[in-house]
Amino acid sequence: MRIAISLLFTLCVVFAFADLNAQTDAWQPSPGHTQVPIWPGTAPDAQPAEGPENYTKDPKDLVAGKPVVMVENVSQPTMTVYPPDGKNTGIAVVLFPGGGYIDLAIDLEGTEVCNWLTSKGITGVLLKYRVPGSGPHRDPQVNPQVQNQVDPKAPMALEDAQRTVGLVRFHAQEWHIDPHKIGVLGFSAGGHLVADISTHFEQRSYPAVDAADKESCRPDFAVALYPGHLCNWPGRPCSDKTFALNPHIHVTKQTPPTFLLQAEDDHVDNQCKPIARLLHGAQEHRSPCRDASVCARWTCLWPTSDERRDNPLAGIT
User: How many domains, in total, are found in the chain?
Assistant: First the structure.
């Protein structure tokens, strides 16, 4: 009997510490910064989590000599505000890390960029949006032989992005931000999210929950760096001959001024050449966009991605 009680006690302790370790595996920002839930209750269109939130580091996948921190299974989206250092320009940028709508490169394409922005007097707002399956993503179950992309069951990432931009504008006075100088910046899948919110701001993708949702969620400017999911759509593989913009991205004159950057040798999604052609066309006012003048505002082609592997912020000042 004593052995059974002792064994039961030991198992309880093991499970208790196992649960504690699971909690400590959730990503946390650096000291002095606090994550804030963006939804007052359950997020709209909440999907069952595949497991507890956690983060991983692959010591073999190094960028600028450091492993990339990838956050997985985000079911409770948060934002973390990084106030500017020194002089405040009044500008704020909401950050969307990339990760194929599967996970989030939270440091390389998140915290490190926020730190750089704050050094320029800009408020950085890091959005930890819901993943996986919150935006267009690859699904090997659809066809293991083809890198198909499927639409999400609900536009959860877009909902999180719209909500966050509205929250930043709602708290603009409190956070010493100019409500007319709030932009978005994203990498890869986060770059797609930049395009998504820049063309879907007239109406929220969810029912309003409070006064913050009455604020405009239109970014005043946008930065999409090596954006993903802009072509290679189901039934239409991305290539020089079949390239077409994602049909969900409708560029108009109301789309905010946008800076696009794409390395010509970026082979992710097999879209580097078509995107490069899009940018070349935009620069020459021969863009396949509906309004060439919109696409031609700010574009930049990067000859190689090698330098960006060594320094993700190289060339951006």
Answer: 1
Q: What is the phi/psi pair of residue 6, to 5°?
A: -65, -40
pLDDT at 17 over 60: no
Contact assessment for residue 95 and residue 183, using Cβ atoms and an 8 Å cutoff:
no
Best CA proximity match to 152, nearest among 182, 131, 167: 131
Higher pLDDT, 195 or 151: 195
The CATH number of residue 210's host domain is: 3.40.50.1820
DSSP strands (E only) in the chain: 35-37, 54-63, 66-72, 78-82, 92-96, 103-105, 123-128, 137-138, 149-150, 182-187, 221-225, 258-263, 298-302
Distance CA 225, CA 313 (A): 11
Q: What is the mean pLDDT of residues 98-125?
A: 96
Most confident of 12-21, 143-152, 175-184: 175-184
Q: At what angle do helices 156-170 and 189-199 cross, to 10 degrees?
A: 70
Q: Domain span at residue 264?
A: 34-310
Query: Residue 197 and residue 180: Cα distance in Å, rounded?
Result: 16
Over residues 38-90, the pLDDT tens digits come to 999 999 999 988 899 999 998 888 888 889 999 999 999 999 999 999 899 99
In a domain, 2, yes or no: no
Distance CA 92, CA 127 (A): 13
The C-alpha atoms of residue 144 and residue 140 are separated, in whole angstroms, by: 4
Per-chain mean pLDDT for the chain: 79
Helix, strand, coil percent values for the chain (each to nearest 5) = 30, 20, 50
Provide the b/e sequence for 34-72 (b: ≥16 CB within 10 Å): ebeebbeeebbeeeeeeeebbbeeeeeeebeeeebbbbb
**Tens digit of each residue's pLDDT (9 = 90 or more) over 264-299:** 666 665 555 555 555 555 544 444 444 433 343 445
**Over residues 226-242, mean pLDDT:** 65
- Domain presence at residue 120: yes
